[in-house]
Each structure stands twice: as structure tokens, then as C-alpha cells.
Amino acid sequence: MQAKLDLTIQFLDTQYISGFCQLSKDLNKICTLHANCCVGLGAKLHDLRGVLDVWRNYTAGTPDERRAGKFQWKLPGICIH
Question: Domain Nucleotide-diphospho-sugar transferase: where (predicted)?
Fold first, then answer.
């Protein structure tokens, strides 16, 4: 199938991907966040709202504050523990 569609498959570097089951500590590197291990749309939305709050606080900081990495995830959530 891969050859038929002329696709190249690559593994994604986990330093750039975070998820509810394994939260990254370095927001400078995260490009995407997934909620695959979270069951139920309501639970996912609840925890994603918390992640959005963390992101807003993080991006409101100065570059020096962001590099220091002293942010904290909003825990616990429904799926984030």
C-alpha cells in the first residue's frame, strides 16, 4: 500500500509531540498535543481547555521566562494525572 501510494513513513520525534498520557516539560519544542489516551469528547475538551490556559500563560511570559521552563501543567484534569 505504501509503495502504491508513493508514501514515505517516518517516526515522529517525541520531543516535538506531547499528549495527555505523557506531558512534555519543554513547551519551546512542542508542535502538537494529542488526546488519544483520553476517553470521551467532554473529557478531552475539559483538559484541552486547561492546556490552552497553560499555553496562554506561557506565551504571555518574556523570552527569558519561557527559556527558564518554570511553567506548570494544570493538574489534575479528567485525563491528565
Answer: 4-48
